[in-house]
User: What shape does this take?
Amino acid sequence: MHKTVLISGPDVEPINLAQAKAHLHVSGSAQDLEIQLMIATARKQIERYLSRALITQEWEVYYDCWNTKMMIPFGQLQNVDSVQYYDSNGSFTTLPEASHYWVSNTSDPGFIQKRYDAVFPELQPGRPDAIRITFTCGYGDDPEDVPENIRHAMKLLITDYFEHRGEVVVGTAATRIPQFISNLIHTYRLYQF
Assistant: This one.
Protein backbone atom coordinates (compact mmCIF):
# COMPACT_ATOMS: atom_id res chain seq x y z
CA MET A 1 0.00 0.00 0.00
CA HIS A 2 1.23 3.45 -0.85
CA LYS A 3 1.02 6.38 1.52
CA THR A 4 -2.20 8.37 1.11
CA VAL A 5 -3.11 11.75 2.63
CA LEU A 6 -6.58 13.30 2.73
CA ILE A 7 -6.49 16.91 1.49
CA SER A 8 -10.18 17.77 1.71
CA GLY A 9 -12.98 15.52 2.88
CA PRO A 10 -16.57 15.44 1.72
CA ASP A 11 -18.78 18.51 2.14
CA VAL A 12 -21.82 16.36 2.96
CA GLU A 13 -22.51 12.86 4.23
CA PRO A 14 -24.32 10.21 2.14
CA ILE A 15 -26.99 10.11 4.87
CA ASN A 16 -28.17 13.32 6.51
CA LEU A 17 -29.30 13.75 10.11
CA ALA A 18 -33.03 13.74 9.27
CA GLN A 19 -32.70 10.47 7.32
CA ALA A 20 -30.73 8.81 10.12
CA LYS A 21 -33.22 9.94 12.78
CA ALA A 22 -36.15 8.70 10.69
CA HIS A 23 -34.45 5.32 10.28
CA LEU A 24 -33.74 5.18 14.03
CA HIS A 25 -37.28 6.39 14.92
CA VAL A 26 -35.79 9.22 16.99
CA SER A 27 -37.60 12.52 17.49
CA GLY A 28 -36.31 15.57 19.28
CA SER A 29 -32.80 16.95 19.12
CA ALA A 30 -31.21 15.68 22.35
CA GLN A 31 -29.19 13.03 20.52
CA ASP A 32 -28.42 14.96 17.32
CA LEU A 33 -24.69 15.41 17.97
CA GLU A 34 -24.22 11.75 18.81
CA ILE A 35 -26.15 10.66 15.71
CA GLN A 36 -24.09 13.00 13.51
CA LEU A 37 -20.93 11.37 14.88
CA MET A 38 -22.43 7.96 14.10
CA ILE A 39 -23.14 9.06 10.51
CA ALA A 40 -19.51 10.17 9.97
CA THR A 41 -18.16 7.05 11.69
CA ALA A 42 -20.37 4.77 9.55
CA ARG A 43 -19.23 6.50 6.33
CA LYS A 44 -15.56 6.18 7.29
CA GLN A 45 -15.99 2.53 8.28
CA ILE A 46 -17.77 1.65 5.03
CA GLU A 47 -15.16 3.59 3.01
CA ARG A 48 -12.41 1.64 4.77
CA TYR A 49 -14.16 -1.69 4.13
CA LEU A 50 -14.82 -0.88 0.45
CA SER A 51 -11.45 0.88 -0.14
CA ARG A 52 -13.52 3.66 -1.73
CA ALA A 53 -14.37 7.31 -1.23
CA LEU A 54 -18.13 7.75 -1.26
CA ILE A 55 -18.64 11.52 -1.62
CA THR A 56 -16.17 13.68 -3.60
CA GLN A 57 -12.83 14.02 -1.79
CA GLU A 58 -9.35 15.24 -2.67
CA TRP A 59 -6.39 13.00 -1.83
CA GLU A 60 -2.68 12.57 -2.42
CA VAL A 61 -0.94 9.26 -3.07
CA TYR A 62 2.83 8.90 -2.94
CA TYR A 63 5.16 6.65 -4.92
CA ASP A 64 8.89 6.05 -4.49
CA CYS A 65 9.61 5.44 -8.18
CA TRP A 66 8.06 5.73 -11.63
CA ASN A 67 5.99 2.86 -12.98
CA THR A 68 4.47 2.41 -16.42
CA LYS A 69 1.07 2.19 -14.74
CA MET A 70 0.45 3.97 -11.44
CA MET A 71 -2.79 3.03 -9.72
CA ILE A 72 -4.92 5.68 -8.00
CA PRO A 73 -6.69 4.45 -4.84
CA PHE A 74 -10.29 4.78 -3.60
CA GLY A 75 -12.13 4.16 -6.88
CA GLN A 76 -14.42 6.45 -8.83
CA LEU A 77 -11.49 8.60 -10.01
CA GLN A 78 -12.88 11.96 -11.13
CA ASN A 79 -9.66 13.78 -11.95
CA VAL A 80 -5.89 13.71 -11.52
CA ASP A 81 -5.14 17.26 -10.46
CA SER A 82 -1.33 17.02 -10.65
CA VAL A 83 1.66 14.69 -10.74
CA GLN A 84 4.63 16.23 -8.98
CA TYR A 85 8.06 14.84 -8.16
CA TYR A 86 11.45 15.67 -6.70
CA ASP A 87 13.91 15.86 -9.60
CA SER A 88 17.55 14.73 -9.42
CA ASN A 89 18.49 18.12 -7.88
CA GLY A 90 15.79 17.92 -5.18
CA SER A 91 13.48 20.52 -6.78
CA PHE A 92 9.75 19.84 -6.54
CA THR A 93 8.43 19.89 -10.13
CA THR A 94 5.14 19.25 -11.92
CA LEU A 95 5.10 16.56 -14.62
CA PRO A 96 3.14 17.73 -17.70
CA GLU A 97 0.29 15.39 -18.58
CA ALA A 98 0.24 16.19 -22.29
CA SER A 99 3.75 14.87 -22.88
CA HIS A 100 4.19 12.16 -20.23
CA TYR A 101 1.01 10.28 -19.23
CA TRP A 102 -2.64 9.55 -19.84
CA VAL A 103 -5.29 9.41 -17.13
CA SER A 104 -7.70 6.47 -17.15
CA ASN A 105 -10.80 7.04 -15.08
CA THR A 106 -12.94 4.53 -16.97
CA SER A 107 -11.46 1.62 -15.03
CA ASP A 108 -11.99 1.16 -11.32
CA PRO A 109 -9.65 1.98 -9.71
CA GLY A 110 -8.29 4.58 -12.10
CA PHE A 111 -4.63 5.00 -12.99
CA ILE A 112 -2.14 7.06 -14.89
CA GLN A 113 -0.40 5.35 -17.80
CA LYS A 114 2.98 6.37 -19.17
CA ARG A 115 2.78 7.54 -22.78
CA TYR A 116 4.47 5.15 -25.18
CA ASP A 117 7.19 7.58 -26.27
CA ALA A 118 7.62 9.40 -22.93
CA VAL A 119 10.68 9.25 -20.72
CA PHE A 120 10.05 9.93 -17.06
CA PRO A 121 12.60 12.28 -15.49
CA GLU A 122 15.15 11.11 -12.94
CA LEU A 123 14.12 11.34 -9.33
CA GLN A 124 16.21 12.56 -6.41
CA PRO A 125 18.32 9.51 -5.48
CA GLY A 126 17.17 7.65 -2.36
CA ARG A 127 14.27 9.97 -1.62
CA PRO A 128 11.16 8.17 -0.29
CA ASP A 129 7.78 9.42 -1.49
CA ALA A 130 9.50 11.17 -4.41
CA ILE A 131 6.28 11.29 -6.47
CA ARG A 132 3.04 12.91 -5.30
CA ILE A 133 -0.17 12.45 -7.27
CA THR A 134 -3.04 14.73 -6.22
CA PHE A 135 -6.47 13.51 -7.30
CA THR A 136 -10.21 13.86 -6.78
CA CYS A 137 -12.38 10.78 -6.32
CA GLY A 138 -15.78 9.63 -5.10
CA TYR A 139 -19.20 8.90 -6.57
CA GLY A 140 -20.08 12.60 -6.71
CA ASP A 141 -20.90 15.72 -4.71
CA ASP A 142 -24.47 14.78 -3.79
CA PRO A 143 -25.64 12.04 -1.41
CA GLU A 144 -27.87 10.65 -4.18
CA ASP A 145 -24.74 9.95 -6.27
CA VAL A 146 -23.79 7.16 -3.82
CA PRO A 147 -25.39 3.79 -4.75
CA GLU A 148 -28.56 3.12 -2.76
CA ASN A 149 -27.22 -0.20 -1.38
CA ILE A 150 -24.28 1.63 0.20
CA ARG A 151 -26.53 4.34 1.65
CA HIS A 152 -28.85 1.66 3.06
CA ALA A 153 -25.85 -0.17 4.54
CA MET A 154 -24.87 3.10 6.25
CA LYS A 155 -28.35 3.34 7.80
CA LEU A 156 -28.08 -0.24 9.06
CA LEU A 157 -24.61 0.41 10.48
CA ILE A 158 -25.83 3.59 12.21
CA THR A 159 -28.66 1.53 13.72
CA ASP A 160 -26.14 -1.04 14.91
CA TYR A 161 -24.03 1.70 16.52
CA PHE A 162 -27.14 3.25 18.11
CA GLU A 163 -28.42 -0.03 19.55
CA HIS A 164 -25.01 -1.33 20.69
CA ARG A 165 -23.40 1.83 22.00
CA GLY A 166 -21.30 0.00 24.58
CA GLU A 167 -19.55 -2.09 21.95
CA VAL A 168 -18.49 0.71 19.57
CA VAL A 169 -17.03 4.03 20.70
CA VAL A 170 -18.42 6.57 18.25
CA GLY A 171 -15.83 9.01 16.91
CA THR A 172 -13.03 6.46 17.02
CA ALA A 173 -11.94 4.02 14.33
CA ALA A 174 -14.69 1.42 14.34
CA THR A 175 -13.52 -1.98 13.16
CA ARG A 176 -16.67 -4.06 13.03
CA ILE A 177 -19.23 -4.30 10.26
CA PRO A 178 -21.82 -7.03 10.85
CA GLN A 179 -21.84 -9.72 8.17
CA PHE A 180 -25.35 -8.94 6.93
CA ILE A 181 -24.27 -5.36 6.21
CA SER A 182 -20.99 -6.29 4.51
CA ASN A 183 -22.90 -8.80 2.36
CA LEU A 184 -25.13 -5.97 1.14
CA ILE A 185 -22.18 -3.93 -0.19
CA HIS A 186 -19.55 -6.58 -0.90
CA THR A 187 -19.83 -6.22 -4.68
CA TYR A 188 -18.65 -2.58 -4.42
CA ARG A 189 -15.40 -3.55 -2.67
CA LEU A 190 -12.10 -2.75 -4.42
CA TYR A 191 -9.33 -5.32 -4.25
CA GLN A 192 -6.93 -3.97 -6.89
CA PHE A 193 -5.04 -1.38 -4.89
